[in-house]
Amino acid sequence: MDRFTVEVISQTPNPQQTIYAAMHQDYAEGFVWEERDRFPDETKCGEVIVKQLLAGNRGHYGPLEHPQIVLNCGWFPHSTMQQIRTHRVGISFDVQSFRYTGQRVVDVVEGKREVEEVFYLRPLGFYSDRQGKKYEYNLEQRQQDIEWCLEACRRYQRRILEGFSEEHARGLIPFDVRQHWVMSANVRSLMHLVDLRWKADAQLEAQKLCEHLWKPFQAWVPEIADWYESNRLKKARLAP
Ligand SMILES: Cc1cc2nc3c(=O)[nH]c(=O)nc-3n(C[C@H](O)[C@H](O)[C@H](O)COP(=O)(O)OP(=O)(O)OC[C@H]3O[C@@H](n4cnc5c(N)ncnc54)[C@H](O)[C@@H]3O)c2cc1C
Questions:
Q1: Residue 20's domain spans which residues?
Q2: Considering the domain boundaries, does residue 240 fall inside one?
Q3: Could you tell me the distance, in angstroms and rounded to a whole number, from the CA of residue 228 to the centre of ligand 1?
Q4: CB of residue 202 inside a 6 A radius of ligand 1
Q5: 74 alpha carbon to ligand 1 midpoint, in Å?
Q6: What are the beta bridge partners of residue 227?
């Protein structure tokens, strides 16, 4: 759907061994670093983590907080960014504030960018409101909304030319301007975010973000992701 993108900037290279080491230190008499050459391989560590920490909802999540993944999320609407930023434990964000520049808004007026490269509008189709009432977003309405965004870009440009600061003029642009952000999370905090934002009543675009977050997560910690898929994914089993 849409232009939504998530790419990995960096990640702990041996995440499941890292979690294993932390778990092992919980009960080992010795200094676990000295055993690092004898740690089981990534897959085996993943299996041990599932068995010892995750299975049966033991709630022993601490060791999962050590490995970090740093992701670049792109072209999501401002509203999705706002929602994702409410998750503040174990997650850190950097996002453009529009205080310093808003050149891409001006680019729309100058014909250098499409309206939809800068603003997000939902695809045509049928939707329902929070009370379950259905409605259609049709072609004519969507075209009118594109015009509305274009008009707002023109107003933004005019105010900038009149000498406004970017932080003042940004108040004129439509709410769902697209944003890119860098987000770092650990294995536990990412799963917690997915608990809350991939469930059926989360906003559509937040669910799409989770779909995109899931691919790098799965490639990074496959055994843990596999356990999560079978036990928690989309089941709204929320952490306290
Ligand atoms: C479907 C949905 C709709 C929402 N609608 C709105 C809305 O309309 N407006 C709005 O403002 N927010 C809204 N939220 C955000 C919501 O209220 C939470 O702020 C958000 O989901 C962050 O989750 P979290 O508390 O689990 O935080 P995280 O930062 O992900 O924290 C992880 C966990 O740490 C613990 N924790 C974190 N901070 C504290 C603390 N201060 N005290 C005690 N324990 C803490 C909790 O156990 C928490 O679950 C919505 C969330 C969802 C999922």
A1: 5-93+178-231
A2: no
A3: 20
A4: yes
A5: 23
A6: none
